[in-house]
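ENTRY TYPE: protein
CONTENTS: sequence, structure tokens:
***
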Amino acid sequence: MSLGRQIAVVVALIGVSTLVGSVLLSLALRLYFSTNDHAARIVLFDIVRSAAFTSVIAVPAGVLFGAPAFFVLRRLGVLRWWSISAFGALLGAAIGATSVAAGVPWLGSVAIGLVSGLIAWRLIVHSDVPLKSNAPLP
């Protein structure tokens, strides 16, 4: 697989995984912030709105920083599930610490990064992107 195709696949998979992480976090926050007096109602519109809001920040940041991190971690030989998840969590913490992500709890931003990193790892493992830095390029 050519390097250009590898980059395209990694960018797409990171974007999808970050979007899925945002939806999962939105669902978790909806359940967490529901009060004990009322049954937790899952309102699809609220989840979609929250996921769209967090995705506006998370997906571009994940793609912008995640794709280069993938290739750097691969080059260094430390491309494992824990390294991608840790990088995602650190990226989420950095985004959550800025005022740009106001409205999303800091720990929520860390959770989006961590979960998105795990999902990205799972998707990348099942793609044809080589995981070793010495993989031959055609």
